């Protein structure tokens, strides 16, 4: 709460002070007026105290004047003029005094004039100087009051400068931010606006208008009435950085096969604020064939972001090159399995059915009759998958929900059954069940028929090949006979 100077009972207070000190008799003087300071004036540092009077009428030839101030009901002496401080021609007594040692506040000012015999003072309340502000304290603001920008922080694009400033007496008049570069040269000054009658002052700037680099921000705040200035609050070593980081992204090898590894390297740098984060998949998945993209996101400490993208190719099978070009190895001779899940420590018959999630080029090992075998996924379609059951490779195409039985050791007994439960993307859900079922005679006959048909096809191919070779031989013999006949018979006749 502001302390106000008191007008009441001032005559009695001064009378008591003067009479107790000098034992003089006061005069009633209605024309004595405080000319300086003025009512509701605002002062700091030094101040001219001046009181006017009518000579003889108020007091005859005063020798000096003593000035008083009243802050809370008590009149307190400030200082008195010298003998030369009273000018008879101007009918005033004055002295310039420092008020920096006085308590800040709102005062009433009075004065007494004396000539060694009599004294007089202001007897009319309206002739006092009231509501006089003595304020030698600038607005209060510290570095901790600066909420933005923060010392040693990094910024880009739009930045809101914000600070809290208070002034108990005069109130805050102006707040502005001065931005200087690391060499101390001023780059810009921005006047802040008070935020809805709070103690906060802010202004928005665009850091793009500044060259990238380090800056200091100083807050200047002065009060409303006397212009006391505070420029002690400072945020320093602030980085303005609006440039994106730099970098490159490459994957090696850029083309490989399912199951092989790829390493993607993202080089990065930032000249001003430095690199804060790098988000990069160093070893992307090679589970499935195709051409894929991978990215690297580089972010600096000023939140500038660079996104890099590159692609890599995954081929399903290893390729062999012949005179006629490139051909893919057949599905039934898969050799480059990406992953083998070990499950052959215990006989499958002891474990019972097992269910595995297998993607392309993944397989699981099982133990059947003390031998290790494998069930693997060669390829996956939308509603079917091609599986390989080995030791001796057997390839079978499964539809979803389909179960097939397999004889693993040629003993006329089915040893396992395999069920394709479901397909999700390029991943299968399969169940392998141990069984011991005699192969039905119908299955044996069908198998024998299939083997016979394969043998017949092979024989037919062989016969066809022999016939072709014999035909070619006969043609060659006939050509030789014709040529010999030409040279031995016809040429002689000529």
- Per DSSP, the total helix count is 3
Structural class: mainly beta
Beta-strand content estimate: over 45%
Radius of gyration: 53 Å
**For the report, how would you describe the main beta sheet?**
7 strands, mixed
- How many E-type strands? 37
* Domain count: 4
* Poorly predicted ranges: 1-23, 317-333
CATH fold-level topology of the largest domain = Immunoglobulin-like
Q: pLDDT average, as an integer?
A: 82
Sequence-ordered SSE layout with sheet pairings:
Blueprint: H1 10-22, E1 25-27, E2 33-36, E3 42-43, E4 46-52, E5 64-70, E6 75-80, E7 86-87, E8 92-98, E9 105-114, E10 118-121, E11 129-134, E12 146-148, E13 154-155, E14 158-164, E15 172-181, E16 186-191, E17 193-194, E18 200-206, E19 213-223, E20 229-240, E21 246-252, E22 255-257, E23 263-269, E24 275-280, E25 290-300, E26 305-315, E27 319-322, E28 325-328, E29 339-341, H2 348-351, E30 354-359, E31 362-368, E32 371-380, E33 384-390, E34 394-399, E35 403-406, E36 413-424, E37 427-438, H3 441-493
């Amino acid at each position: 709460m502001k302390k106000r100077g008191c007008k009441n009972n001032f005559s009695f207070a001064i009378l008591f002070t003067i009479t107790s000190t000098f034992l003089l008799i006061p005069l009633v003087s209605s024309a004595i007026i405080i000319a300086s300071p003025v009512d509701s004036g605002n002062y700091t540092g030094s101040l001219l105290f001046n009181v006017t009077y009518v000579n003889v009428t108020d007091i005859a030839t005063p020798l000096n004047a003593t000035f008083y101030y009243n802050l809370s009901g008590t009149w307190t002496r400030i200082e008195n003029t010298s003998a030369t401080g009273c000018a008879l021609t101007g009918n005033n007594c004055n002295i310039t005094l420092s008020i920096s040692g006085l308590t800040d506040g709102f005062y009433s000012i009075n004065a007494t004039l004396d000539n060694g015999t009599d004294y007089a003072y202001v007897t009319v309340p309206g002739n006092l100087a009231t509501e006089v502000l003595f304020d030698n304290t600038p607005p209060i603001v510290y570095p901790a009051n600066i909420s933005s920008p923060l010392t040693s922080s990094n910024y880009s694009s739009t930045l809101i400068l914000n600070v809290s400033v208070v002034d108990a007496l005069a109130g805050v008049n102006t707040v502005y931010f001065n931005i200087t570069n690391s060499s101390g040269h001023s780059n810009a000054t921005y006047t802040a606006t008070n935020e809805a009658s709070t103690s906060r002052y802010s202004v928005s700037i665009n850091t793009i208008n500044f060259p990238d680099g380090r800056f200091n921000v100083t807050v200047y705040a002065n009060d409303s009435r006397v212009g006391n200035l505070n420029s002690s609050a400072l945020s320093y070593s602030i980085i303005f950085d609006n440039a994106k980081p730099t970098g490159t992204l490459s994957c090696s090898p850029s083309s490989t096969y399912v199951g092989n590894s790829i390493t993607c390297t993202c080089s990065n740098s930032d000249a001003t604020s430095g690199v804060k984060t790098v988000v990069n998949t160093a070893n992307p998945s090679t589970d499935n064939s195709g051409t894929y993209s991978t990215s690297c996101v580089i972010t600096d400490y000023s939140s500038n972001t660079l996104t890099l993208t590159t692609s890599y190719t995954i081929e399903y099978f290893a390729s062999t090159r012949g005179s006629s070009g490139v051909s893919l190895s057949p599905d039934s001779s898969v050799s480059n399995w990406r992953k083998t899940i070990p499950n052959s420590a215990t006989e499958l018959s002891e474990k019972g059915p097992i269910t595995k999630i297998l993607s392309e080029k993944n397989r699981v090992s099982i133990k059947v009759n003390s031998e290790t075998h494998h069930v693997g996924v060669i390829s996956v379609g939308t509603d079917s998958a091609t599986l390989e059951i080995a030791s001796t490779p057997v390839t079978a195409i499964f539809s979803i929900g389909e179960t097939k039985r397999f004889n693993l050791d040629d003993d006329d007994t089915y040893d396992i059954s395999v069920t394709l439960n479901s397909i999700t993307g390029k991943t299968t859900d399969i169940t392998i069940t141990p069984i011991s079922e005699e192969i039905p005679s119908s299955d044996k006959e069908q198998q024998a028929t299939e083997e016979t048909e394969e043998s017949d096809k092979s024989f037919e191919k062989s016969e066809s090949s022999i016939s072709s070779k014999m035909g070619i031989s006969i043609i060659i013999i006939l050509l030789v006979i014709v040529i010999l006949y030409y040279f031995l018979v016809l040429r002689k006749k000529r």
